[in-house]
Please model this.
Amino acid sequence: MNTPRIVTSIAELRAALDGWRKDGARIGLVPTMGALHDGHLSLVRGIQSHCQKTLASIFVNPTQFAPHEDFDRYPRDLSGDAAKLATVGLDLIFAPERAEMYPEGFATALTVGGPALAGLEDAFRPHFFGGVATVVSKLLIAALPDVAVFGEKDYQQLAVIRRMTVDLGLPIEVLGAPIVREPDGLAMSSRNAYLSADERAVAGRLNLVLKDAIARLKHGDPIAEVEAFASTDLREAGFEKVDYVAVRDAETLAHIRAVERPARILAAAKIGGTRLIDNMTV
Model:
């Protein structure tokens, strides 16, 4: 089991990928912010059936964090991440420093609309998707992979990236990978490490509330009523703040009056100092 090679500059990255391309390899990219868990490793395993060579980026992107958010305490462990990626046969890690991605004088950013303005995460983190779109576009342009994969846990983010890739005319296939869950159904997340034992017990209720909401929808209950019941159930389960529970069109994230085509239920709630998100197919 060989530890993947780590490159830190775009020039090194492109040189390595040029060699793969000369050999005719199809290339897959897994963008991450590190602090890897089994959910991230599942992304690598999933994309390997779509390509011959795989790389992962590890970069904690400052432009998607607001001043009051957890950029400084976001977990970082490059050597540990590299060891985990070795277990799934990753070929290359791109781990740039901040100055490589945002050099002195950097003055360009993307403005995103469509699913980025769905009134979900954007309503509570208005800075977020512009920062995500900017860094992901830079990663895609730096690597120009044939295919890239993003987890469905950040479902609105996935929708934004798919729209952005089409709008910018990037010749890259964007895949969504299913959420990987803990035994009690909690969606795996690097931020789960922030939870105390008592908070962790409450967090495991989030997916159960969403499953109950889906059952209500399939029974024919009105969407607004289901959203309200689910929000109440989360508060009663111990979540201190519920940002939203929303049933939306699965592709555009637009509001819907009834579940007559593919739909998604999405939720965000806070317990202690940790904000959790989750979503499921209706």
